[in-house]
Amino acid sequence: MSKFVTTVAVQIGNEHYTTHIQAGTHRLIADEPIEEVGGKDLGPTPGQYLLSSLGSCTAITLRMYADRKGWPLEGVSIQLHLESTDIQGISHTHIKQQIELQGDLDEAQIARLHQIADLCPMHKILMGKTDIHTEMNLLT
Question: How crowded is residue 37: how many other Cβ atoms within 10 Å of its Cβ?
C-alpha cells in the first residue's frame, strides 16, 4: 500500500475570479480568462493546474526512474489536453498526454518509460476511486 498526502489552502474574495493558493511555502494564483467568464487572467485556470499536476508528476517520475537506472534520458516534454463533457448528468473526461523523450534511448527503454509514465502518483489518483467530502462553515 502506498500513501500520498498533501494539503493546500485556497481563498477568494470579491474579485472575479482571482483565487489565492498557499501550497506549503509557495503562493500561486488561479484565475479564469477575461473573455470566457470575466476573470482577469492573472494565473492558470483550475483545469490548467490539474493538467500541470499530472504533467509535472509524469515528468518527475520518468526523470527519477531513468536516473535510478542510469539511462541517458536528457529531457522530457509533455503536452496535455483535457476535454470534459457532461452527458445526462454524468461527467466524461478524457486527458491526452503526449510525451516526447530526448536522449540516446533504445526501444526497450522507451517501452519501459511508457509503462512508468502511467505509474506516477497523480495518474494513479486520477484513474482511481476518488471520494470528496465537503464540509462548510459560515464565518461571521
Answer: 11
Nearest to 3, CA basis, from 127, 125, 132, 140: 125
Cell 461571521, residue located: 140
- Is the full-model pTM beyond 0.70? yes
To which H or E segment does residue 109 belong?
Answer: helix 107-117
Q: What is the mean pLDDT of each run of 10 residues along the chain (140 residues)?
A: 89 92 96 91 96 97 98 97 92 95 98 97 93 93
Q: How far is CA 50 from CA 31, 37, 73, in A?
A: 13, 19, 25
The grid cell for 13 is 474574495
Q: How many CA atoms lie within 13 A of 103 on its CB side?
A: 20
- Residue 131 CB neighbour total at 10 angstroms: 4
| Residue for grid cell 526497450 | 108
